[in-house]
Design a protein that fits this description.
Radius of gyration: 27 Å
Structural class: alpha+beta
Shape: elongated
Distance between the termini: 32 Å
Oligomer: single chain
Largest sheet: 4 strands, antiparallel
Strand order of the largest sheet: 4-12-9-10
Strand content: 15-25%
Amino acid sequence: MSTFAQTELGALPTDWDVERVGALFSVQQGKQVSKRYRVGNNQRPFLRTKNVLWGRLDLNDLDQMHFTEAEEQRLSLHRGDLLVCEGGDIGRTAIWRNGVARCYYQNHLHRMRPRDAAKVDPEFAMFWLWYAFEVGGVYFGRGNVTTIPNLSRSRLCELPLPLPSLTEQRRITGVLALLQQAITQQERLLAVTQELKRAVLAQLFTQGLHHEPQKQTGLKAIPQSWEVVELGSAVEQIDYGISAPIPKAPPKNGVKIVSTADITKDGRLLYDQIRRIEASAKTVKRLTLQSGDVLFNWRNSAELIGKTAVFDEQPEAHVFASFILRIKCGEKKSHNFFLAQLMNHFREIGVFVKLARRAVNQANYNRNEISVLKIPLPSYAEQREIAAAIAAVDRKIEHHRRKHAALSALFRTLLHELMTARIRIHDTDLRPVEVCAR
């Protein structure tokens, strides 16, 4: 049973110490980015804040600039160095694990290098900073760290850090790293399945399911039995939504309103974030969404034009905002899920970017324009088959998304419990975590 004592970081076990970051780490700020350093010899790769994510580095897009020999010696990265963001997402931290490639870093990053490897594990410090800045709010208000837009070297050095024994530090990081591996694996599986869906959509909307001979149309090749029609002729009704600002504070007797922000790029509706608006009973009656309504985002930034979702029945009434078109298919000639997937496919391959009218930071593709959009249209029966095939892939995507969310929630919970010693590592059974990682 652990005994606790009060510290400046709250109650911690009596066998844990508290030390300043500057006592445990040598902290060095990087080189200022400037156009004059982009010419000449010794152009070297360097990390910017965009490359530093919580707990990992994104090395896919490294910038380059000139470093003198003295700067190379002073600012080179060694395996186990921590990189901490000075601004933006203040405190965001990752660890440099590459022991071979030569790389440096900009002035909006601090490099933390352990002074004594026998005293502090850099991965433990990384997870602590993740907890302190992102989860626990430990440093909020301390020396204005989070109320100004930067984390200076001196402030970083002054921050307190809990220090269990090196053995316990490594056990803690082992559990958290295992969970991070499981989360990363789900991210990879999600990305692969989403790429699979893009390939499936491209094939289904050009070749169909029945291996028919193809014919050439203005939409390129499609199965011979398919029609090419104007969208307006294949659906029952197209409506604009409510043209009124959505208040930040929800009105007392407001109705839920689906806005463009509630539709994701891949065609999901985020029901849990939908806001409320005041509207007359007549308007609500006219614009209440029904299960199966297709919602098309006709005005947005160019890359988001065409986001489309299908509304599922909800316990209370929902209406929709003015930059969304409601399309009622009627389920006679066109199938709602087929149409929604087709619209998202068109957005993905750039159809709406080419067709939309541009304004300042906005693009438009209104009701009149979408009504005459040429779409491929198989028989209603084949539309249903295609929609079902895509839905099977969507279920796989949703499986990985839910598993990722569950693992992420478990990680945050364990991060809190371990960093505050509510759970001591010798009391932890690793088997549930191992199962999650599979």
